[in-house]
Recover the amino acids of this structure.
């Protein structure tokens, strides 16, 4: 199962036939295993990584560090649930260290990010503080190098 998951994580476009050859299994067994993994929510979603900048689509991404006061009996979960339900929120993680939650948002402008922070996020009961960091350039996303322009770094040799 781990090998199958690793192959799908690397390239979800592989067909059951291709996976069967790679894993030394029958196509029917691979198909059944994938269906089981999807039913059990081990495979949650198939994902395509798009370089939106090259596609000409401008978005503003920000990572917001949030400190919260955990609530009795539910800890961080209730506040996290309120936050991850906002459509702007792309990723949300509980963290150790200097802040409690790391929230990644996608908006159309800096103004939209700031409005999200001051009108939606900061107003949630239990949110103590926020610190917003704007993403300036993506070098690598989900293990994929976004702009791999392999250039020749050797020194030119002249006669």
């Amino acid at each position: 199962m781990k090998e199958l998951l690793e192959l799908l994580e690397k390239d979800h476009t592989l067909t059951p036939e291709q996976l069967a050859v790679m894993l030394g299994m029958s196509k029917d067994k691979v198909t059944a295993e994938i269906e089981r993994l999807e039913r059990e929510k081990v495979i949650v979603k198939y994902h395509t990584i798009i370089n939106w900048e090259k596609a000409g689509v401008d978005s503003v991404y920000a990572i917001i560090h949030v400190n919260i006061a955990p609530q009795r009996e539910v800890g961080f979960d209730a506040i996290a649930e309120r936050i991850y339900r906002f459509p702007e929120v792309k990723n949300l993680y509980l963290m150790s260290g200097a802040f409690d939650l790391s929230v990644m948002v996608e908006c159309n402008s800096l103004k939209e990010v700031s409005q999200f922070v001051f009108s939606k996020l900061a107003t949630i009961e239990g949110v103590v503080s926020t610190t917003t960091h704007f993403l300036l350039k993506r070098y690598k996303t989900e293990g994929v190098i976004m702009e791999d322009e392999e250039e020749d770094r050797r020194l030119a040799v002249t006669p």
